[in-house]
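Recall the central idea of this unit: under ordinary conditions, the amino acid sequence of a chain determines the structure it adopts. In this exercise we apply that idea directly, starting from the sequence alone.
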Amino acid sequence: MTDADWPPAVTTRNEGGLSPFVLLCEHASRHIPSEYANLGLPEAEVRRHIGWDIGAADVATRLSDRLDAPLFLAGYSRLLIDLNRPPHSRTLIPARSESTEIPGNLNLDSAERQRRIERIFTPFHHRVAGVLDDRLARGVPTILVTVHSFTPVYLGKSRPWHAGILFDRSEAFARRLIERLSAETDLVIAANEPYRITADEDYAIPLHGEARGLDAVLIEIRNDGIDTIEGARRWAERLAAALAPEAG
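Accordingly, the structure predicted from this sequence is:
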């Protein structure tokens, strides 16, 4: 086992940043340790959106720098374990992603499931929880924002949105972001598309955010808009401008 093969479960950026925003990118990496042999998938499959959120880490990193906001980046592919699923979720370790079966995740025994939880899931969320709890204990204003991306077409169905703002209890905050982003009239910005936040299938917003009484939203950006350096830069600028008024 090498350090390169088993990198940290979480990488932080601007952890001491002065912004009220705390950023998460749970699907930042497509890394799978060599012992898993890509979970039985060709490398091209792992590089697709099923392996990670294409462009999300680039946007989140740029946004972190623009806002001086702490950022937590995942170190492993969501095909190994999905950091935005509660441990009881059937999709925590997916047997199928979109229409692709994941051979290395079929018929897992409890020991392997627990191994992935202990090595990847728990360290990531322990680090995030520690920083959030410390900020709250010190009375530091905190708003949780997670950055994701989605495919233009899913199971044959086109998705018309350029981005979606997903929320549960933080509707007022989310609606303000949608209004600011929609000022660019050529953009289609949706509320709770292409997914919805639920306690059964989401982790960061319900557990890290709303359980602590924080405003919390998940930002989904269509990945054909952020799969280049220039696209990621433009979206980081848009999001920074939309979020900045919330800093007070």
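The mean pLDDT is 97.
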